[in-house]
Amino acid sequence: MFFDRLTRMVTRTLELVLVVSLALMAILVFGNVILRYVFDSGLALSDELARLLFVWVIFLGAILASREHAHIGFDALVRRLSPRWKKIFLCLSGVLMLACCALFVIGGWSQTIINLDNTYPVLGISYAWLYAAAVVFGIGMAISIAYNIFDAVTRPHAPEELVLIRQMEDRIDEELGLLAEEAEAFEQNKHKGAGK
Q: Which tens digit of pLDDT belongs to each residue from 104-114?
């Protein structure tokens, strides 16, 4: 299905952005420590950029965790409910979370507008970039939550699939399965290309 493929592509893009951001943060901070203690100098923009990246990593990581159902939650009650009640609770909690997402978008947008003229002393970019992370988070989470509700209501699911908190082992098994499928598809394409 198109929407599933799009969701997978967006998830992979988020993962890539997070990996690059974390690597850049590590290089900036570690490099600055080395420069300060070994060469008695440092990069002035390192601290500001690392802080800005850290905020974006947190918010984008929360969106990714929502897509992968990796957030911490209390599911003892929901696991004991019938599938019909699980769907009702999923929709109810989804509506409450959508309201929180709206607050993030509204508050983040207000702060972004307020801080358009304020700039980072060293980076020279607007503080609006910092507060825009809340807007992106609110919209991304809202899309993720709306998709979870739509998926639960419109598609058939096993009762355990209606609990949107998965154990770490389940997530690892699913990722390994996806990697195995991708490797198999790669091998098939490789053999088709060699046969021409």
A: 999 999 999 99
Confidence of residue 166 (pLDDT cuts 50, 70, 90): low
Residue positions counted in the chain: 196
What is the C-alpha separation between 13 and 19, in angstroms, rounded? 10
